[in-house]
Description:
The complex is a heterodimer of chains A (about 450) and B (about 90).
Chain A: E1 13-15, E2 35-36, E3 39-40, H1 41-48, E4 52-56, H2 57-72, E5 78-83, H3 90-98, E6 102-105, H4 108-116, E7 124-126, H5 133-141, E8 145-148, H6 151-162, E9 169-175, E10 189-190, H7 195-204, E11 210-215, H8 225-246, E12 252-254, H9 272-275, H10 279-291, E13 302-305, H11 309-312, E14 316-327, E15 333-337, E16 354-356, E17 365-370, E18 379-386, E19 394-397, H12 404-407, E20 417-421, E21 427-431, H13 436-440
Parallel strand pairs in A: 4-20, 5-6, 5-13, 6-7, 7-8, 8-9, 9-10, 9-11, 11-12, 12-13, 15-17
Antiparallel strand pairs in A: 2-3, 4-14, 14-15, 14-19, 16-19, 17-18, 20-21
Helix pairs in contact in A: 2-10, 5-6, 8-10
Chain B: E1 8-9, E2 14-17, E3 22-26, H1 28-38, H2 43-53, H3 58-74, H4 81-85
Antiparallel strand pairs in B: 1-2, 2-3
Helix pairs in contact in B: 2-3
Bound molecules: pyridoxal-5'-phosphate (PLP).
Pyridoxal-5'-phosphate binds near residues 83, 307 and 309 of chain A.
Amino acid sequence: MSTKKLQYERPIIQRLNTGVMNKFGTKTEYKPVTHIDGNSVKELLAKYGSPLFVISEQTIRDTYQSANRAFKNRYPKVQFAWSYKTNYMNAVCNVFHQLGSWAEVVSGFEYHKALQNGVPGSKIIFNGPDKSEEDLTLAIKNDSLLHIDHLDELYMIMEIANNSKKRPRVAIRVNMDTGIYPMWDRFGFNYENGQAWDAINKIMLNDKMDLVGLHSHIGTFMLAPSAYGIAAAKLSDLAMAVKKKFKKNIQYIDMGGGFASKNTLKGSYLQGVDTSPTFDQFAEAITTSILNAGFTETELPLLILETGRALIDDAGYLLGSVISNKRLADGRRATIMDFGVNILFTSFWYDHKISPAQEFGQHTEDSVLYGPLCMNIDVIRENITLPPLMRNDNVVVHSVGAYNMTQWMQFIALRPAIVLIDTNETAHLIRNRETLNSIQSDEVMPKYLKTFKL
Amino acid sequence: MKIKKNIALSESGFVFDPSTGDSFTTNPIGLEIITMLKEGKSRGEIKSAITKKYNVDGATFEKDSYDFINMLDKHNLTESYEKEKN
Ligand SMILES: Cc1ncc(COP(=O)(O)O)c(C=O)c1O
């Protein structure tokens, strides 16, 4: 009988820099993550292939409940609308719809997606600068909430309304100075220079549509709750002005999205977990402003939130494998993974937390993590401290639920499968790994190019 | 390839170079390799010792140890080539 050999680990040696702050990350990163919601990382990869996106339904539900609680504890009328662009896998959308979220969409494509998922037209918020006449006509027919971005859109809605029996329900998107730089002034109508008030007057004086709401989305990955306090105060101020001048109540105030998730912004020494405000802090700033604006209790507008990344980031994981280890010319260790910026778009913004998926000794080394694309920009982490990974070892990238599964690029490789783990810890395939055919099915070959001789 | 004679090693993988004052950590396999190098073992002897003891194939270990010894060199823990030749 042969004796069992010991577990091998690559030999490493690392210089100790006493007293120098470790810029390569914190200890917690090295803890292995072998399971996600009771499912073995290795088994998931064996079954669905590597790389693989995994979404935890339990985390979505827990995060939603904590956000919902933060607002409902402070304000009587709260409604979330799921921001489709953040993650529009239908299964993910439907988890949010089961939780009570409406849909928030920014294109005809997303609008149809929400309809197909079964969201009633009247519970779809249609944002964005690019709504075609066809989109608007359908949305008006379905009684959806149209958030007007610019005057051309307003005039188009007026024209459609003139020829239709339906009264469009509209809101305007308002941009404003909230003390945050850069100010997002390219979307909607400006508050400070009176554009927003002008647009409101145009709508109120038109007898073919109803101004039901006011909307703002002041930015994304916002770290200052106070900016939301200012935005909520300015929207409330407009609502009060409408009441005063036209004797009409604005039915809702929509604060958009933008709450920071727990990710760590690139180049930041502080971890996102420690710096991102809580839902309670955002809720406190927003609800205090609205409650203090002078509405009577019965006139208090519905508060709508289009929170995206803060609700889904933590629920998403990307599992991947090591392709190779290299030594760079300057002596740094480089590790090449089987996923790159093509499917992990957010590595342009964040220093994603990455854990090994197997047990290892206590020794670690500093490394650069590269993706597999033949491009210099394909860097997952410029520096990270990890145990000595070997070819075919696995890693778990954390907090990738927002924007990756919508902004991913089909570039030189096929996009991976996506698995949702339900609250009973059962894994469900919610998107197949792409095939050559899924990419080529829309290509058309002119007849004269069908054959060639070499 | 020779490791500097005065390098101090501890069982926990702490490596100290008294000639420069630099200190390092190495993992258990790294420690075994440095120890064997200090004992004057050849690369072939090290390879067969490690592959016998651990679940690693020869090619993988050769690649890893090549890189490891290069790092020892980079960290000035080895006798330089010139000295070795003379
Ligand atoms: C209008 C609107 N609402 C909501 C969101 C979601 O934002 P976030 O993911 O930052 O919460 C966005 C994203 O850019 C948006 O444009």
